[in-house]
Structure of ABC-2 type transport system permease protein:
Amino acid sequence: MLILHFTFFIFIYMWPICKKELRQFFSSLTGYIAIIVFLLVNGLVLFVFRNNIFESGYATLDDFFSFAPWILLFLVAAITMRSFSEEFKGGTFEILQTRPLSQWQIVSGKFLGSLVVAVIALIPTLVYYFTINHLASSTGIDSGAAAGSYIGLLLLTAVFTSIGICVSSFTTNSVVSFIITLVACILLYFGFDAISQLPMFSGSAGYYISLVGINSHYQSISRGVIDTRDIVYFASLVIFFLLVTRQNLQKR
């Protein structure tokens, strides 16, 4: 019953905003080009560039799941950079506020719309899994690890999307939003790992610092083990950035 109420809430209150985001992203070639470039670069790294799977001789998607988050950074930044900045710049945010929607519904709808676009870009990468699994001469890909890695990518996408939505709510310039989103995502994804490796943080201190970053939790899920602590970590980040976005909209 609770699930039905939640689904009803999404379609009635969030879907109009979500649909607007989808229409805005796919109304020009920019959206299609961003997705095509994302798939093309990942495909080249996996099958063409040096140390590809044909050279290694192993049926594995480890290289894809290690490299994909970095390309995902640029994709999500491109998807979210106009979410609120274009609304502010074009003066349509005031029109949006006249609709019978709360600010939380607007934020949630924007987040859901951008997340759906990013997930649409991830779905075709399943071809990599089936292709490599088919080409394997004996044992195929570890399905459990692959499933865990895809769940990790989805959670990572949700966090990056919430960061991009939040950044976009602070500026009227979409290019500035794109750059700041990139920097913020990189710092949260890899920054704490880099700090934890400094000599002054050797031992347990470095370990706890790395836990603050996204990468350690993403790597944990990518092993195929779904830990509740990792799920809570990703969910907390998403909720935090969406709440910051809502608070910023209230000030406006």
